Amino acid sequence: xxxxxxxxxxxxxxxxxxxxxxxxxxxxxxxxxxxxxxxxxxxxxxxxxxxxxxxxxxxxxxxxxxxxxxxxxxxxxxxxxxxxxxxxxxxxxxxxxxxxxxxxxxxxxxxxxxxxxxxxxxxxxxxxxxxxxxxxxxxxxxxxxxxxxxxxxxxxxxxxxxxxxxxxxxxxxxxxxxxxxxxxxxxxxxxxxxxxxxxxxxxxxxxxxxxxxxxxxxxxxxxxxxxxxxxxxxxxxxxxxxxxxxxxxxxxxxxxxxxxxxxxxxxxxxxxxxxxxxxxxxxxxxxxxxxxxxxxxxxxxxxxxxxxxxxxxxxxxxxxxxxxxxxxxxxxxxxxxxxxxxxxxxxxxxxxxxxxxxxxxxxxxxxxxxxxxxxxxxxxxxxxxxxxxxxxxxxxxxxxxxxxxxxxxxxxxxxxxxxxxxxxxxxxxxxxxxxxxxxxxxxxxxxxxxxxxxxxxxxxxxxxxxxxxxxxxxxxxxxxxxxxxxxxxxxxxxxxxxxxxxxxxxxxxxxxxxxxxxxxxxxxxxxxxxxxxxxxxxxxxxxxxxxxxxxxxxxxxxxxxxxxxxxxxxxxxxxxxxxxxxxxxxxxxxxxxxxxxxxxxxx
Length: 603
Description:
CATH architecture of the domain at 287-448: Up-down Bundle
Order of helices and strands: HHHHEEHHHHEEEEEEEEEHHHHHHHHHHH
Structural class: alpha+beta
CATH superfamily of the domain at 287-448: Butyryl-CoA Dehydrogenase, subunit A, domain 3
Shape: globular
CATH class of the domain at 287-448: Mainly Alpha
Distance between the termini: 44 Å
Number of strands: 11
Number of helices: 19
């Protein structure tokens, strides 16, 4: 049976000690109420809810799945009761404006909440998670009238939300969208078309679902320039915001999937549904990126949660399972065999899981701090700089962390051996659930093209230069200048990291020059380039964690072993995982000819 214990100490270490969230919150008057005591209380209460209510539903929800009957979807036993407790606790609006019923806490605190929910039960967490993206899109681009009409009940959790992009003929290539929007005399629009793969598109948790839908106006330009964005409620909303009659949004079916079976993935039919234009016509794709970026960071978090949950369950198994003797002699002579954690290869797998989950968490909360700053930007210039910074790391987070989360889940199954393949233990479910994370919100290949093509080549490496400068400044500040014991301990991290960052910039320039002569270079190098970038970014996170842990070790605190474990894990990361960049540097710089030379009919 899967177990989950909220890793509060690890979350507090990275948010408070490494990134200084308490001081960060006090820099902004809007966040001043997020005091250390309040944040700790919120984390503690959220942990209780996740451990006692959500975690026990993880495996049972997978076994039962969602039920579809003539357009209606029923979630697994216990899901609605847990959702009702969630809304009663005010959790949905934790980080949303008070004027719409939220608690006004920082977005980063909302992400801490989401990590716990998602690790305890990712399929369940997808229902309120999709609502967050809808809420953020409405807040960013909708009219005040629309906000007043839809935000309060989305914020309370009485209603939920979705993102409706994909159609049968197009996934990533949104230029092919066929859903139509015809204007009505009263200013509304009639929406006609079908959408597929809509997470939380139909369920029994709320009495209304607010769909954010991409569609085309009759006179719209071709391609992505002619896409508009609409609010389309499942049921009409009366003037007093009560739920009205059906809005002709029907669920045609739900998908029979490899994983996340307790999360309903719906085919939605809009049969003359009434919708409301968000913002200006033909700017839908631009507006939708607000939703997509929220979703991409949320999906990146799924990689961390898969790694964390797999690690939490494979670690106690490795300590209890007896098999063979240590190569260096019996460690437990009173037992019939030693626990498998004594074996180097098992420790390799466990440490890889630990390094991925804790390093990935640091990457997520590094980004979350930028989201806070972005929301509080003083002027357009500061906003643009922060948006560029976040836009640069978002594809790395989404693709790199989901790939490593899947790797960690597979390692967890491997630790269990044959038992990992049996449903009772739950590891195979983590693998199945994690697999989708590398696909939705843009596959790894799509994220890689976004990173290398748009964020590096089209922007001439501007954001990379800014990030590299930050890392190299850290390296300089923590490298050995004098006979300083602390800085000498940091050199094992600082020197390889600094060298890698310099090489990163040089490789980027070389790829830009190659791409001028051969555009296939971008496609052939992009995934390896993204993974290369991810290992360096995670290396920066582990160097920062090692730096802070070494500081604390020098103070000799009561929990000194906690900080020693951080340093030992950082050493493992730089010894065993960081060197992957050497192979990636070779493959990403390789000529594309061997990829493109074979004719399609000869595959």
